[in-house]
Specification:
The complex is a heterodimer of chains A (about 280) and B (about 270). Chain A is mainly alpha-helical. Chain A has 10 helices and 2 strands; from the N terminus they run E-E-H-H-H-H-H-H-H-H-H-H. In chain A, strands 1-2 form a two-stranded antiparallel ribbon. Chain A starts with a strand and ends in an 8-residue tail after the last helix. In chain A, helix 3 packs antiparallel against helix 4 and helix 8 packs antiparallel against helix 10. Chain A has 2 domains: about 55 residues; about 220 residues, MetI-like (MetI-like fold, Orthogonal Bundle). Chain B has about 270 residues and is α/β, with parallel strands linked by helices. Chain B has a single domain, classed as Rossmann fold. Chain B has a 6-stranded mixed beta sheet with strand order 5-6-7-3-8-9, with helices on both faces. In chain B, strands 2-1-4 form a 3-stranded antiparallel beta sheet, covered by helices on one side. In chain B, helix 3 crosses helix 4 and helix 6 packs antiparallel against helix 8. The longest helix of chain B has 23 residues. Chain B is globular and about 55 Å long. Chain B starts with a strand and ends in a 12-residue tail after the last helix. Classes of the chains: A mainly alpha (about 280), B alpha/beta (about 270). The interface between A and B is medium-sized, with 21 and 24 residues. The complex binds adenosine-5'-diphosphate and magnesium ion. The site of adenosine-5'-diphosphate has 11 residues of chain B, from strand 1 and helix 1.
Chain lengths: ~280, ~270
């Protein structure tokens, strides 16, 4: 690994560098990678702590991590945090299913038929860009302030993203695979599940991941506006009573939720799409 | 029995419609294929070879003429196609790809497994049964495609330039392998290629096509005895002569096609 060029009389000899494959290493690259990614948030937290203690920022708005930890712990022990997270997760889960499942079925159908697509496209693309938060008041008017209105608004947001991506996924399937299915007399089941769905899966997952991000936004917004429990309520109420530590706990929990949910989707994707080269 | 005519194509015309107008892809193409015959179609790219095969498979309609195929009413699938280019499902394992055509046939699961195992072995892919296509080389994927078609035991096998994308060594290997597998069943094969050499090495007869519009130039019988050993065959003087004859017949057409390449498709019309 040291110098790779040496002199040999009037000539210069260059030698290829050695790699580490022959040597026993303390940690594998993967392990070091994991260590690095644990390390980076730690660096941020420490820096944050130092900055607050040195009075470089206003501790009323940016409380030090150590002072948040106390509130965090208290909220865990009282069970408040668990119930808030539970309520919010239920809303995400129910809304996600209510939106994604019909979108998937409809998307496969629309992707396969040009005529039906031509009919439905104007409707889809007129509704798709509407900010989903903007229809929240209407949804609350129709479904009331209970759980159903949260499910429905999340479902609507999820629906369009999954629908549009599923259609795109089916449309981009190489037509040769449809010919193969026809030529080998594939059953309806083999055609829809074995060819169309599986061919569109990568794009469907793109849609699901985008939808998860949007679902979180819509969830918190809906909880701000009209809910009595949930992580959004926790954040909003903390603002109203200026419980800044609790507010930060809420933020940390929401971002952690988003992180875990996207990790879950990644894992699911790895599981159901084992044929993708770049996944390995 | 062997002289029974199974495929009859008479004055087949195919016209494609494009936004810029329509053009004739196949112009009064006629030929017959006997049962159990290895029939090759050779011609420059764009002369309509794939179109003929797709019409035979029922994947494409004809504009005119007559195409009739005599099948036995024995429940076997009518035809199976080895498609041009990569047509194995990337999301299925090698095993599942080979089993795909069998899934629509009523048979016990164990029989199905045995058939898949047999053809995995025939194409030398047993160690890769659980692999996905991205883990295979181009030659291996073509083997999967061939095994998938053979596994359904169709009456007619339609092969569309199955070896076109392979290197010379793999091509030779697979050609020989194909002949060996085919020798066991002697089913009717319509084999498309743009390689005269390949057509002469494999076929009982070679249909030579010309381009723009696709027409039959001539049908050349190839009566080398079977089973054939392709490297040996290539050393045979008669092999070189046959290839040369076909090449001469095509040469004028290729240069003619090159000259007219600039002409717009819409201007061509059915005579
Ligand atoms: N579905 C289609 N629509 C319009 N033109 C087509 C279609 N399929 C094939 N063609 C045209 O018909 C001609 C013959 O095509 P093809 O049968 O694929 O030729 P080959 O297999 O001999 O290379 C080509 O000019 C091709 O562009
Ligand atoms: Mg072709």
């Amino acid at each position: 690994m040291s110098t790779v060029v040496e002199r040999n009389g009037p000539r210069i000899v260059w030698r290829a560098r050695e790699d580490t494959a022959g040597r026993v290493r303390f940690m594998t690259t993967r392990h070091r990678e994991i260590l690095m990614s644990i390390f980076s948030p730690l660096v941020v937290l420490i820096a944050w702590e130092v900055v607050v203690r040195a009075n470089l920022v206003d501790a009323r708005f940016f409380p030090a991590p150590t002072s948040i930890v106390g509130t965090f712990w208290a909220l865990i022990r009282s069970g408040d945090l668990a119930s808030a997270v539970g309520v919010s997760l239920t809303r995400i889960g129910a809304g996600f299913l209510m939106g994604a499942v019909p979108a998937l079925v409809l998307g496969l159908g629309l992707g396969l038929s040009r005529m039906v697509r031509a009919f439905a496209n104007p409707i889809i693309y007129a509704l798709y860009p509407v900010p989903k938060v903007a229809i929240l008041p209407l949804v609350m008017l129709i479904f009331g302030l209970g759980e159903m209105s949260k499910y429905v608004i999340i479902a609507i947001a999820v629906f369009f993203l999954v629908l549009v991506n599923t259609i795109a996924g089916v449309v981009q399937i190489d037509p040769i695979y449809f010919d193969v299915a026809r030529n080998f007399n594939a059953s309806r089941r083999d055609f829809y599940l074995g060819v169309v769905l599986r061919g569109a899966l990568p794009a469907i997952f793109t849609g699901l991941k985008l939808a998860m991000g949007v679902a979180l936004i819509v969830l918190v917004t809906a909880e701000f506006v009209g809910a009595r429990s949930g992580i959004g309520v926790m954040i909003y109420e903390s603002w109203q009573v200026f419980a800044i530590e609790r507010l930060f706990v809420g933020l940390v929990v929401v971002s952690f939720l988003g992180y875990v949910l996207s990790l879950l989707l990644d894992e699911l994707e790895r599981l159901v799409i084992p044929w993708q080269r770049d996944r390995r | 029995m062997l002289d029974d005519v199974q495929i009859v194509v008479e004055d087949l015309v195919k016209r494609f419609t494009l936004p810029t107008g329509s053009f004739v892809a196949l112009d009064r193409v006629s030929f017959q294929v006997r049962e159990g015959e290895f029939f090759c179609i050779v011609g420059p790219s764009g002369c309509g070879k794939t179109t003929i095969l797709r019409i035979l498979a029922g994947l494409e309609t004809k504009t005119g003429g007559d195409v009739a195929i005599h099948y036995h009413a024995n429940g076997r699938p009518r035809s199976a196609m080895v498609f041009q280019g990569e047509a194995v499902f990337p999301w299925m394992t090698v095993e599942a790809n080979i089993a795909f055509g069998l899934r629509s046939q009523p048979m016990p699961a164990a029989t199905r497994r045995d058939i898949v195992r047999y053809y995995l072995d025939q194409v030398g892919l047993t160690p890769f049964a659980r692999a996905y296509p991205y883990q295979l080389s181009g030659g291996m994927k073509q083997r999967v495609s061939i095994a998938r078609a053979f596994a359904t035991d169709p009456e007619i096998l339609l092969m569309d330039e199955p070896f076109a994308a392979l290197d010379e060594q793999n091509k030779l290997l697979l050609q020989q392998e194909l002949l060996r597998i085919w020798d066991e069943s002697r089913k009717t094969v319509v084999f498309i290629t743009h390689s005269i050499d390949e057509a002469v090495a494999l076929g009982d007869r070679v249909l030579v096509m010309t381009a723009q519009p696709g027409k039959v130039k001539q049908v050349v019988p190839v009566d080398f005895k079977r089973p054939r050993h392709i490297p040996e065959l290539r050393r045979d003087a008669r092999f070189g002569e046959l290839v040369y004859d076909i090449w001469s017949a095509l040469r004028d057409e290729v240069s003619r096609a090159r000259e007219s390449r600039g002409s717009a498709r819409g201007e061509e019309s059915l005579p």
